[in-house]
Design brief:
mainly beta, Immunoglobulin-like, four-stranded mixed sheet, 6 helices, elongated
């Protein structure tokens, strides 16, 4: 049977079901009220943040702006502590486009459905990577045939015409390395830099003295052929979020995006019996995302920790049927198999970029959700948001966590946001329908 045939009747009964839901009961005097604690670590210059709570009918029952660098207790008088509401976090960022005199505004909304009272929400940036401009000069070479700087963007390639000088912008957490082929040799040589914390690093390298890599690369077979975005990092310190990137350099902006189905992962160790130096890392973090170009296929996302580089990555055993939109607010899909979190994402592109993502528990069969009302002051500022103007499109994603048990546990981790690698430690695997 066609999926539209199965889902549309379910959509038709939603207004009736919503009308049968009860509003939160009125507590007796002195009873506790529903509340969530929101800790906002962004200041007013970084972002404007707000939170609003909605009931089952989508009515906004509480809207509150959040002060920067402060903790706010959001309460709903006249409720019980065992009531649940949909909680939406709003983040508004305004950025000036250099040299244009114009500003871009990004409005990100994240809704957590059925949030229980007493939850703590931490709003903070856990992206710890820094940027260093690596300036290289190679000496005692007749040719520099190839240079790879993991997590680096190439600005200048070493060549005889520039006296073998190179420049790379590298994203790292304190350690970085590079590998190079010189003088027509087939083997790679490498050098490792540690304790990097400045905006620039100047290095003169005698390439002939760099350590060779005798070991063959480790291969990872991917689920399908695509233009993958990947990151393989050696774990230096998970508590301090310190890693050593293993992948190739980042694509040059505007350059060609390669399509492939396997990864070759080189390690900055010689693996030579005469070189007993230990690895500068213990274990690996593998992150990957890509979309299968086959019609009717899906996008794949992955984030896990491994003691050794894996030979293959898992294929999702769960699936989602195509989504159905009844209007700009109501969406339904059919869940197939077992997973932990269902997410719907809508986007409005442009100089006013709006993204609204909803997290909710999955269920066997059809799952539907209608976006809550937009608070009046937000609707007055952002007309496309008030009109739910997302071009009639929505993405639906199934998320599974190997080491977490169910929706409540996964969302609690996401709300706490106190570990930059919580998702990798939880063993994340996601499958999103390609619209």
């Amino acid at each position: 049977m066609n999926i539209h045939t199965k889902i549309l009747p379910a959509l038709a009964v939603l207004p009736t079901l919503a009308a049968c839901r009860k509003d939160p009961g009125q507590p007796q005097q002195g009873e506790p009220v529903y509340s969530v604690s929101v800790k906002n670590e962004f200041n007013a210059l970084q972002a404007r943040l707000a939170v609003f709570l909605s009931n089952d009918d989508g009515n906004v029952i509480r809207y509150q702006e959040l002060a920067g660098n402060a903790t706010t207790l959001v309460e709903v008088p006249g409720t019980r502590t065992d009531d649940r509401f949909d909680c939406t976090i709003v983040k508004i960022i305004t950025r000036d486009a250099p040299g244009t005199g114009m500003s871009d505004t990004l409005v990100n909304l994240t809704t957590y459905t059925g949030l229980k009272s007493g939850e703590t929400i931490n709003l903070r940036d856990l992206f710890y990577k820094q940027t260093t401009d690596l300036n290289l000069t190679f000496t005692n070479v007749t040719s520099v045939d190839s240079v790879v700087v993991p997590d680096g963007i190439t600005f200048v390639r070493p060549a005889p015409s520039n006296n073998f000088n190179g420049q790379y912008r590298v994203y790292h957490t304190g350690k970085l390395w590079l590998r190079v082929k010189i003088n027509g040799q087939s083997m790679w040589r490498f050098i490792l830099f540690g304790n990097i914390d400045g905006p620039t690093l100047d290095a003169t390298l005698d390439a002939g003295l760099m350590l060779p890599i005798f070991a063959t690369p480790k291969k990872i077979t991917l689920p399908f052929t695509a233009a993958w975005d990947f990151s393989v990092e050696g774990i230096v310190d998970t508590a301090g979020a310190k890693y050593l990137a293993m992948g190739d350099q980042l694509p040059v902006p505007g350059g060609a995006i390669p399509v492939y189905s396997t990864l070759d992962i080189f390690e900055p160790i010689s693996n030579d019996v005469f070189d007993p130096a230990p690895k500068p890392y213990n274990g690996f973090r593998v992150r990957l995302s890509g979309a299968d170009p086959t019609p009717g296929s899906y996008a794949y996302s992955f984030d896990r920790l491994y003691p050794a580089i894996p030979a293959t990555l898992p294929v999702p055993a769960f699936d989602l049927q195509p989504t159905v939109l009844a209007d700009n607010r109501l969406v339904a899909t059919q869940c197939i198999g077992s997973f932990d979190v269902l997410a719907f994402t809508r986007s409005h592109p442009g100089t006013l970029g709006i993204t609204w993502e909803v997290f909710m528990p999955p269920a066997i069969g059809i799952v539907s959700y209608r976006l809550p009302d937009v608070p009046d002051n937000l609707g007055a500022q952002f007309q496309p948001l008030k009109n739910y103007d997302f071009g009639g499109k929505v993405k639906v994603r199934a998320e599974d966590y190997e080491y977490l048990n169910g929706y409540e546990t996964a969302i609690h981790k996401r709300l706490l946001n106190n570990d930059p690698v919580w998702q990798a430690k939880a063993g994340y695997l996601g499958r999103e329908e390609v619209q």
